[in-house]
């Protein structure tokens, strides 16, 4: 059986602004196995990004527990979370945040230069099908290609988990499908545990499991019998 990568027990997050409190996560229980491809769906404000941010060590839970393997993340201070993030987590966001004055290669190299056991930038770019364009600047690349550079940058340090918040949110269907293809290929080749938040329900077809969020909880989990390939997606 695959190793459990994340275990959440009664994970709760409350945001307080002034006199108002928002319960963003409510007693959430969840386990994620190594190598899983998981899609998170649900209405705006249902807690998806809050969970991903806590799993990625970007934010603290209010109560409950979250483990990465045997390590309790909910015990760590900011320094501990930063070390965890550096070592284990890659992030992909809706906006690519590439440095415009650096080529695709140089954007990826920025990360590989400060990682312990990175792949070569050209290797990371080849995994997302962009080796031929590695000397292009972001402005010379399409939105989908820029997102694939951002994915290469996220996986070049060989993270155990890849957390993607709306990775295709700014893309049309054709380029979005290529981005999903890149994520699937990394999941298959490197075994990277991958979580994808999306508002595009068709993306759920590529997942091992789909988590449906409502009001800060997981209201339903769907386990797929057959995973579709990105090419089979109807957007
Ligand atoms: N920094 C914050 N301060 C106050 N409230 C917040 C903060 N971040 C999120 N929230 C609130 O927590 C709830 C959950 O937000 P979250 O971003 O996790 O939802 P989501 O499902 O990811 O939504 P979306 O699909 O729109 O990104 C929402 O009510 C949101 O307004």
From TrEMBL:
<feature type="domain" description="ABC transporter">
    <location>
        <begin position="6"/>
        <end position="233"/>
    </location>
</feature>
<dbReference type="InterPro" id="IPR017911">
    <property type="entry name" value="MacB-like_ATP-bd"/>
</dbReference>
<keyword id="KW-1003">Cell membrane</keyword>
<dbReference type="GO" id="GO:0022857">
    <property type="term" value="F:transmembrane transporter activity"/>
</dbReference>
<keyword id="KW-0813">Transport</keyword>
<dbReference type="InterPro" id="IPR027417">
    <property type="entry name" value="P-loop_NTPase"/>
</dbReference>
<dbReference type="GO" id="GO:0005524">
    <property type="term" value="F:ATP binding"/>
</dbReference>
<dbReference type="InterPro" id="IPR003593">
    <property type="entry name" value="AAA+_ATPase"/>
</dbReference>
<protein>
    <submittedName>
        <fullName>ABC transporter ATP-binding protein</fullName>
    </submittedName>
</protein>
<keyword id="KW-0997">Cell inner membrane</keyword>
<dbReference type="Pfam" id="PF00005">
    <property type="entry name" value="ABC_tran"/>
</dbReference>
<keyword id="KW-1278">Translocase</keyword>
<dbReference type="InterPro" id="IPR003439">
    <property type="entry name" value="ABC_transporter-like_ATP-bd"/>
</dbReference>
<comment type="similarity">
    <text>Belongs to the ABC transporter superfamily. Macrolide exporter (TC 3.A.1.122) family.</text>
</comment>
<keyword id="KW-0472">Membrane</keyword>
<keyword id="KW-0067">ATP-binding</keyword>
<dbReference type="InterPro" id="IPR017871">
    <property type="entry name" value="ABC_transporter-like_CS"/>
</dbReference>
<dbReference type="GO" id="GO:0098796">
    <property type="term" value="C:membrane protein complex"/>
</dbReference>
<keyword id="KW-0547">Nucleotide-binding</keyword>
<dbReference type="GO" id="GO:0016887">
    <property type="term" value="F:ATP hydrolysis activity"/>
</dbReference>
């Amino acid at each position: 059986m695959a190793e459990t990568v994340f275990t959440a027990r009664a994970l709760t997050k409350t945001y307080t602004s002034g006199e108002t409190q928002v319960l963003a996560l409510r007693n959430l229980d969840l386990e994620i196995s190594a190598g899983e491809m998981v899609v998170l769906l649900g209405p705006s404000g249902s807690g998806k990004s809050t969970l991903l941010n806590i799993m990625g060590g970007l934010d603290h839970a209010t109560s409950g527990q979250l483990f990465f393997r045997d390590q309790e993340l909910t015990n760590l201070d900011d320094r501990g979370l930063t070390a965890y993030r550096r070592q284990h987590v890659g992030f992909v966001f809706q906006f690519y945040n590439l440095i415009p004055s650096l080529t695709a290669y140089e954007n990826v190299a920025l990360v590989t230069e400060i990682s312990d056991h990175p792949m070569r930038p050209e290797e990371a770019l080849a995994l997302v099908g962009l080796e031929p364009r590695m000397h292009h600047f972001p402005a010379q690349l399409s939105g989908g290609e820029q997102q694939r550079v951002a994915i290469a940058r996220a996986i070049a340090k060989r993270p155990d988990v890849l957390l993607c918040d709306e990775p295709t949110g700014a893309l049309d269907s054709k380029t979005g499908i290529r981005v999903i293809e890149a994520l699937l290929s990394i999941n298959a080749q490197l075994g990277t545990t991958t979580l994808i938040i999306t508002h595009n329900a068709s993306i759920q077809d590529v997942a091992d499991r789909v988590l449906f969020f409502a009001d800060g909880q997981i209201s339903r989990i769907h386990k797929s019998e057959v995973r579709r390939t990105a090419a089979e997606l109807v957007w």
